[in-house]
Amino acid sequence: MNKKRELTILALVILLGAGVVWGGVTASISGTVTDQSGAVIVGASVIAHNTETSIDTSTQTNAAGFYSFPVLPAGKYEVSIKAGGFQEYRQTGLVLDVNTALRIDAAMQVGEVTQHVEVAANSVQVETTATHTGEVISDTKMTTLPLNGRSYTDLLALQPGVAPASSGEGGGYKVAASLNSGQSSVNGQREASNGFMVNGSSAEEKLYNAAAIIPNLDSIAEFRILTSNFDAEYGNYSGGLVNVLTKSGTNKFHGTAFEFLRNPRLDARNFYSTEKGILHQNQFGGTAGGPILHDKLFFFTDYQGTRMTNGVDTGLISVPSVADKNGNLADVASQLTGNVNGNNWANILSGRLGYPVTNGEPYYTPGCTTSAQCVFPNAAIPQSAFSTPSKYLLQYIPDPNNGPYFTSSAHKETLRDDKASARIDVNTRYGLIAGYFFIDDYVHLNPYGGGNLPGFDSSDNGRAIMVNVSDTKSFGATAVNELRLHYMRNVPF
Fold first, then answer.
1. Residue 135 or residue 418, greater confidence
2. Residue 355 and which of 149, 393, 430, 483 are 20 to 30 A apart at CA?
3. Alpha carbon of 302 to those of 150, 199, 257, 418: distances in Å?
4. What is the spatial distance between Cα 264 and Cα 276, in angstroms, rounded to a whole number?
5. pLDDT in tens, 285-333
6. DSSP secondary structure string, 28-83?
7. Which among 14, 143, 30 is positioned nearest to 79, based on CA atoms?
8. Cβ-based neighbours of 140, under 8 Å, separated by 6 or more
9. Residue pair 88/111 in contact by the 8 Å Cβ criterion
10. Bridge partners of 68?
């Protein structure tokens, strides 16, 4: 009975894992250990040391002198190799980015174990084992470039072959009502053919297949755009794959605080506007991270708030004149062309206007002053003939204020957006466990409701949530297991 229960639990774990695990966001190191003659060394001890968290991952070379660390968190590392009768080999300054696969081969020198040979990694590390192509964008690049809105998706076009979508398939979709959703054509593929991941979990919304989760820029360690030849684990995408890795705590406390603001004091009036619209935009927040238990338990948390009030400039909008709205169409009389088509329509017009209208009669001709000559004498439509909906809708069309046009920037677009996340990393005998929680809550008011005239405002409110937990456990020198559970929700209110 106990054996059957264990098998059932194992099957459930496998099924759950298969249902929620996506492509990895880890890195790997592998290589071959030999002596100076080129003969392989069996059973050499290899340790990958994370210099930021002091967490060690160990393995041994096999019968072919080969070793591998297939799943390592991104970060800074040094690799040390020990074998009886040989000096210790140590390579420092290794930087593992998301999806990096480094090859570190070592030729051991005969000597005392207490002696060591130290090699510094090249400033440019070349991957010789991975087939995928794609650019890594580090946190330094993200935080030093001026990004209006502070969204990492604005940097996707730094990669060759990536063309941002400006219109068409989902081109107007925005995350949290204001941020770029990251929709791009990668190597000519459709914008909906890309994948977005955060810490190895899907961060893709289901309507346009765009990014639904965009973490605070200061909380992102790096992201990578895989554009071609990526592994089968990233199936389901024919375009590109965007892998985002958030920061984790280290053995040192770190924190940041920021405030980015825009205001109208140095702005100029739009050329076609009669007034200068206001613009107040504040983005503020900070991060904090460090150890809870040195070499054991680490935390990282962040917050970003956005407050915006923007006087939206309509530009020059053609609207009816005051006379037009009262039925006097003399200024557009040249557009009153054509003839009454059909007896039924002629009867309807007769009932509305109070005088007879015949089939084929012209609506208006130059010089027409009586109903015997045309349907609308003097190019005027009696208000008594206006339909009921028209009478009520005309009040929402503003009068011209710039020649025949209406222009304004007095109506304000507002946005309140609050996003926060927390990450915990712990090194246990059950493996390296990481937990991540993200929430983004926003309220957006559009004074034009997608149109270009005021009075039809709309509200766009929503909340995005992501929770993921991962456990990476090594079983000796030949096996490693990575389990990842994930939950995401992105819904409007």
1. 418
2. 393
3. 14, 16, 10, 11
4. 8
5. 999 999 999 999 999 999 999 999 988 888 888 899 999 999 999 988 9
6. EEEEEEE-TTS-B-TT-EEEEEETTT--EEEEE--TTSEEEEEEE-SEEEEEEEE-
7. 30
8. none
9. no
10. 30
